[in-house]
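User: Fold this; tokens only.

Assistant: Input:
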Amino acid sequence: MRILGWRRAIVSVMAIALCFTLWACGGDRPPVAGKGEPTRLGSRISEVAPPAVIEELRSELEQYQPQVSIVSPRPDEVLDDNQVTVKFRVQDLPLFKNAALGLGPHLHVFLDNQPYQAVYDADGSIEFTDLTPGTHTIRAFASRPWHESFKNEGAYAQTTFHVFTKTPNNNPDPNQPLLTYSRPQASYGAEPIMLDFYLTNAPLHLIAQEDPNDDIPDWRVRATVNGQSFEIDRWQPVYLKGFKPGKNWVQLEYLDEQGNPIVNAFNNTVRLITYEPGGSDTLSKIVRGDVDAATVRGIVDRTYQPPAPEPEPIPEPTPEPSPGPEEVFEPEPEVVEPEETIAPEVEPTPEPEVAEPSIEPVEPAPTNVSPTKDNEPIEPSVTPAPVVEPAPSSELPPVEPVQPRRGWKEFLKRGGDGYFNRRGRPPGAAKAIESAPQTLPEIIEPESIEPDVPLILEPTGEPEVPILRSPEPAAD
């Protein structure tokens, strides 16, 4: 009884240990991606949802079921040259590249396990040169503008040819599943980055999982990004984030349901890519969400014309005040109200009354007048008549000056203004006459000076006064 107890105890311990071992082995399995939901796949790498613009544009291409075939070279053809021109035929998918956006439906063409080259012409061709002698394989499939492969029946084509001779390399087994690495490739300017591949001869999960004891093995793809691995059990693209700026490496491996690699020519592939955030290419703008689907719809529809953008109103620039000279504040001058100036009243100057002189006859002096020194002729002094300025007025009538008229009698009465008495006048008489004060009329000058009126002397009509000369005394 004791022996049976010990045996039961040992079996129980072994069973528990086996459970722990199986649990530990199961814990080594990497996380699974491909669910299309945000999933943490490692310390840095995570799966995210596809960009919204790509999901919207995808529906534009669901109507197509592209059929791809390789016209030349023919399968198993041996070439006697180290260059080859590969020709394709594509049906049920328009191939083109939008000139403005640089994207469009195209073919991914692979030579052996090299990175693909894009072909945007349905009846086009591509040339490969400097081929090494031996066996080579061409693979091609249809791709969407953002480099996601079409996965319908007939979208993939493959041919194997030989340069000069056959070799075992680059010759995949047509009876085994084949993995074709597609993306990521080259350089990227934004995240998330799409991981995509193409499967050939891979069974459907539903059929492979129907009977675990059959000979149809299930499959999965192991992806490793910068050393962090995860598994993909669905044949669909996966969008990843967490790439470091600069160089990154990505590896894809085809595994069976037990996690063992299935060996074939291209089932284990590694690519080196470059990630530089802030890219300005169309794909980077689509991934970041910088553009909407209407803006880039031309990459899925050759005939699409984007709506003309509405011109944005140009705001009027607000003029900035230019720095001018500093204002100098001067004291305001005191406003002095001008005193009202009263113009003096100008009294009219009365015109002098000039009495008409009466001329009386003067008896002539005797002729026997002896000349003396006192009787020397004295130059008559003529007192100028006062000039009367006219009073200021708006309109001045012409004024004729009145000249005193001298009669003959007055002239003789005055002695001819001293002409006849020039010899008998005492010496001081001339000085007395010269020193006699002359009374002049007061002249009031008006404010506005009018031009002088010329003095016009009118002839009086009187006869000229004869000059009488005394007879010279007779010589004794």
